[in-house]
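Supplementary Methods. Inverse-folding protocol.

Structures were first reduced to a discrete structure-token string of length 256. This string, shown here, constituted the complete conditioning input.
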């Protein structure tokens, strides 16, 4: 029979502890949602402030963009994502960067800043090396990197919640694949292409860490991981006639 402690007033302490744990989880999730939305909004506001400043002063910030294989273009790796050519350009980029940034910080809070920064720097650097000799501007390269990171992270990690985000990204931005091809004049397909490659690479590099909510592993998954570790150390599994594991023997012991 299980026992539970009660005080003089008949309060079940084990129940109260479980309620406290669940309330802490809910509070953590609520804080994570707020922080994720905040990051999406902050990035969006900065992007729009730059554009409105350019529009209000009737200036052109295009020369601060990324110009491949030029010294000034190196600075453009960081500045180009915040520069947009016209209203249509920034309006088209606003919803996806907000949604994807919010999703990134919600599901991958521990590595979100790294992923966001490297999406801009690595993707931009490849454009600087191999892009056409014209100014590349806009947040679309980062958008492609985040979309591909979120998609392939869910696929690689085989987590149902993260897979749901992958399907959500495909549903919203599946047509983005056409942006990887040089089909439209005046569009930096190189930024899209290298952004997608960067996001895919980051998903693989960070495949084993960074999740905000780490799911509980099943026993068979733990057993498989332990078996792989033993194999790497030179152990061999010995089973009975029914296939059940009896013991593990080191290869040196078998040879001797």
């Amino acid at each position: 029979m299980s026992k539970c402690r009660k005080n003089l007033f008949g309060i079940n302490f084990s129940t109260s502890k479980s309620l406290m744990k669940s309330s802490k989880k809910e509070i953590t999730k609520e804080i994570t949602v707020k922080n994720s939305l905040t990051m999406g909004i902050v990035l969006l506001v900065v992007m729009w402030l730059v554009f409105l400043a350019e529009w209000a002063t009737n200036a052109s910030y295009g020369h601060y963009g990324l110009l491949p294989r030029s010294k000034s273009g190196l600075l453009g790796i960081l500045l180009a994502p915040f520069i947009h050519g016209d209203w249509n350009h920034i309006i088209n980029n606003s919803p996806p960067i907000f949604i994807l940034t919010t999703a990134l910080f919600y599901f991958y809070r521990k590595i979100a800043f790294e992923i966001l920064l490297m999406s801009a720097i690595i993707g931009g650097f490849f454009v600087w090396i191999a892009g056409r000799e014209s100014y590349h501007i806009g947040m679309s390269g980062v958008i492609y990197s985040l979309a591909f990171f979120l998609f392939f992270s869910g696929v690689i990690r085989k987590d149902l919640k993260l897979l749901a985000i992958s399907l959500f990204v495909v549903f919203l931005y599946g047509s983005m694949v056409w942006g990887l091809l040089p089909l439209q004049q005046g569009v930096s397909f190189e930024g899209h292409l290298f952004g997608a490659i960067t996001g895919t690479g980051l998903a693989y590099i960070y495949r084993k860490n960074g999740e905000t909510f780490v799911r509980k592993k099943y026993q068979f998954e733990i057993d498989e991981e332990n078996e792989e570790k033993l194999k790497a150390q030179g152990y061999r599994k010995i089973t009975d006639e029914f296939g059940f594991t009896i013991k593990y023997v080191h290869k040196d012991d078998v040879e001797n």
